[in-house]
Write a structure and sequence with these properties.
This is Rec102 protein. InterPro entries: REC102. Strands 1-2 form a two-stranded antiparallel sheet. The chain has one domain. The chain contains 8 helices and 2 strands. The chain has 188 residues and is mainly alpha-helical.
């Protein structure tokens, strides 16, 4: 790895270190991040979900498969297997050391902006801070509620879908609500 890439990785890791009070973004979304910079210069962020394990996700998919086809209840939780984001920043006028300092901050701002403006609407269970918090708080109760009401797990997926479809969990809604004096979540 070239010296520039080594320096970039050091600066990037420092600016995105989950231990930093300013950069616990991923943990606030209930993810454990693993951030790497490969030899080509790509920044890779692997996210481990702290709410659902792979087994839990498989169980939820099974809930959907086992549901009665005549059910009017919502189904199909939007999910991603992988998200690739490509951004290129090139400059011949900015000093190399300055570039190493600003790129990590720009990447962080870019990702947060992308989440707020696009991804949180399409995949709220992945990118909405409020929806993920609600999911984490309710996750252990979903099966219990479903068992109590139907004596099976047929309501688990529709209950998850209710959390997913709640547009009050969006950052836009939270910001607009602020003007009306209601209390809000910490968005950063």
């Amino acid at each position: 790895m070239t010296e520039a890439k080594t320096q970039f990785k050091s600066v990037y890791m420092k600016s995105t270190n989950p231990k930093d009070s300013d950069s616990n973004f991923w943990e606030s979304l209930y993810f454990k991040p693993t951030i790497t910079l490969d030899y080509s210069g790509d920044v890779n962020i692997d996210l481990e979900c702290l709410i659902w394990t792979q087994n839990k996700i498989g169980t939820i998919v099974e809930y959907d498969k086992n549901r009665h086809s005549s059910s009017d209840l919502p189904s199909q939780i939007a999910h991603l297997l992988r998200l690739d984001i490509t951004a290129s920043l090139e400059s011949s006028t900015i000093d190399h050391n300055v570039l190493l300092e600003i790129i990590p901050l720009q990447l962080k701002e870019y990702l947060q902006s992308l989440f707020i403006s696009q991804l949180e609407f399409k995949f709220p269970l992945l990118f909405s801070k409020v929806a993920r918090r609600r999911l984490a708080e309710q996750d252990n109760s979903l099966s219990v509620v479903s068992q109590s009401l139907t004596r099976d797990s047929s309501l688990v997926l529709p209950l998850i879908k209710i959390i997913e479809m709640d547009m009050t969990a969006t950052t836009v809604y939270q910001l607009l609500s602020r003007t009306h004096g209601s209390s809000l979540i910490d968005l950063v």
